[in-house]
Amino acid sequence: MSADLRWDELELVAEIVAGGTLSEAARRLGVDQTTAARRLGRIEARLGAALFDRIDRRLRPTPLLRTVLPQLSAMAAVAEEADSRLRRSRQEAAGSVRVSSLGLVHRLILAPALGDLTALHPEIEVALSIEDRSISFEEREADLAVRLGRGPEDNATIRRLGRLAFALYRPKIGARSGMAVAYGQDYAEMPEMIALTALRPDARIIARSNRLDVLAEAAASTGAEVMLPTLMGDTDARFSEVEGTRGSAFRDLYRLAHPERSKAPAVRAVARWIDATISRRLESS
């Protein structure tokens, strides 16, 4: 037989051998008999030989086909086992997985890519919770977390996903020089706050918050400048980037996992999706 037959064509031949009729093969494959007959006709035309003899209203393998029946049966068994393993894997990767992170990570990276996860694992339910504080894995406040920095969760498994770049932004409308919004004093040593001080040493701080979304709103309403992650600032039409400030600060982004729950198939599947999604997004920003 020709080596260029596709697997779906080999599968049809195997089902005809097993069922003995086109109607039975069509039923097993979930297609109508006319479609199965048309496919078989194309296969035989391409091979230039008949694969079945019509005897007593049943299809019997020709000598040509009988020579490869052992290999065909082996291929069918391998395919059935692979399909069975895939079904078991999809069934195991089910349930609810709690993911804690900053609002910008959920809003700009994970939520827009959630369709990729549900397409692969439709039985998984993801709970996206916005948390600025460190969470407790021992109390199972989350199964997975994405953080700017490693944090104090010493019992968590940790993976670095990449660097988040910052830049200085100003409102496109109503911008006022000499003013900025910033984190609270407890966060003055953060790289983006150190960069703000270096870029605008004489700026008057008119508002403080430890939440980036709050700082963005405050800057937009007052005309003040603000340090934002580039993936956040670039997508907010209200702001323009101050030239020469891109990459003036960076923060490492980490994915943390519950030490025991990370072994669950559903949690592993979501962790792989988070790692791939965030790494890809950071590389493009």
UniProtKB/TrEMBL annotation:
Q: Which residues form the HTH lysR-type domain?
A: 5-62
Gene Ontology molecular function: any one: DNA-binding transcription factor activity
Can you name the source organism?
Pleomorphomonas diazotrophica
Q: Name one Pfam family in it.
A: HTH_1
A biological process term (GO) from this entry: DNA-templated transcription
* Family per similarity comment: Belongs to the LysR transcriptional regulatory family.
The identity of this protein, by name, is HTH lysR-type domain-containing protein
Q: Which UniProt keywords apply?
A: DNA-binding, Transcription, Transcription regulation
